[in-house]
């Protein structure tokens, strides 16, 4: 099984979505944003959070690609912001060998 960071490197989304996510990631606060996306309670570890977020994002991307009327662009960007931010935190906690 691939590790979560490798899976993220293989994730390709439109440039504008990713640019919005990177900009939004500057203001990301885990304790505020993550419960809103994953539900309230104890915050999961970074890897678990990333796996859940990637599953959510995959569903949102499927809706986007299929022009589903239930697709919510703002929710998609929120999830991408959380993914970018959680990945940054995970990389930082793994140290220089993760680069």
In summary, what is this structure?
This protein has about 100 residues and is mainly α. It is built from five helices and no strands.
Question: Can you give a write-up of this model?
Answer:
It is a single chain. The chain is mainly alpha-helical and 99 residues long. Helices cover 69% and strands 0% of the residues. The chain is built from 5 helices and no strands. Helix 3 crosses helix 5.
Task: Pick out its properties.
99 residues; mainly alpha; 5 helices
Tally of individual helices? 5
Q: Overall pLDDT, averaged?
A: 87
- Care to count the β-strands? 0
Largest sheet: none
Helix content: 55-70%
Q: In total, how many domains does the architecture comprise?
A: 1
Poorly predicted runs of 5 or more residues = none
Helix-strand sequence: HHHHH
| N- to C-terminal distance | 19 Å
Rg, rounded, reads 13 Å
The fraction of residues assigned to DSSP E strands is under 5%
What coarse outline follows from CA principal-axis ratios? globular
The structure class reads mainly alpha
Which secondary structure elements does this structure contain, and how are they paired or packed?
Blueprint (H helix, E strand, L loop, with lengths): L3 H6 L5 H11 L4 H9 L7 H20 L7 H22 L5
């Amino acid at each position: 099984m691939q590790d979560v960071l490798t899976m993220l490197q293989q994730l390709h989304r439109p440039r504008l979505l990713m640019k919005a996510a990177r900009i939004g990631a500057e203001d990301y606060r885990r304790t505020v944003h993550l419960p809103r996306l994953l539900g309230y309670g104890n915050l999961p570890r970074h890897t678990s959070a990333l796996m859940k977020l990637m599953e959510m994002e995959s569903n949102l991307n499927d809706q986007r690609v299929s022009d589903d009327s239930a697709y919510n662009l703002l929710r998609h960007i929120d999830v991408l912001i959380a993914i970018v931010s959680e990945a940054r935190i995970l990389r930082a906690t793994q140290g220089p060998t993760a680069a």
